[in-house]
Specification:
Radius of gyration: 21 Å
Keywords: Isomerase, Signal
CATH architecture: 3-Layer(bba) Sandwich
GO molecular function: isomerase activity
Protein name: Chalcone isomerase family protein
Helix content: 40-55%
Number of helices: 7
Strand content: 25-35%
Number of domains: 1
Strand order of the largest sheet: 3-4-5-6-9-10-11
Oligomer: single chain
Number of strands: 11
Order of helices and strands: HEEEEEHEEHHHEEEEHH
Organism: Undibacterium cyanobacteriorum
CATH class: Alpha Beta
Length: about 200
Amino acid sequence: MRQTNRLTTGLKYLIASCSLILACGQSFASTEVNGVKFEDTAKVGGKDLKLNGAGMRVKAAFFKLYVAGLYLTDKKTTTADILALTGPKRVQIVMLREISSEDFGEAFMKGLNDNSDKAEKSKLVNQTVSFGELFASVPSLKKGDVLMLDWNPGTGMQSFLNGKQIGATIAEPLFFNAVLKIWLGDRAVDSTLKEKMLGDKG
């Protein structure tokens, strides 16, 4: 009887230990891109988001600019489905080299213009100006800096640099979708990065 009890107790400890290991493994699961780790989950507006995909922005074939990850409430593989989601979203960018805020801002604005039609641009003039002022608030983005663009339906779009909010909150959901199309639109800034953010694991 004592031997049976010991075996039962031992089995319980083994199961508990395995459960703890699995739980810890899930808590610290991450995806690595060019040495930068993206946690597989994030929280925006009190809701848990999943990493939809992450990749690297490369310019002129060999200049590594940054890595970016997209977080959503549910994983999606098409731009249309992502834009249609009404819940919170996050784009997380980690810089791989230093770049002036002027150059970074110009690249953002070009991405907005390239992927928005005339009607969208006319509706978003004020928001675009407000977003442009964000880049004037910091002199440059340095290697390792983390820029997060969060969409929270109850608040709007907020931008954070290394955890500190920069720029104004922008309440228009159409504008956040316009920002998403910088990476996910028909004329995305980097086609390979687009595929990665859409969940391509290849």
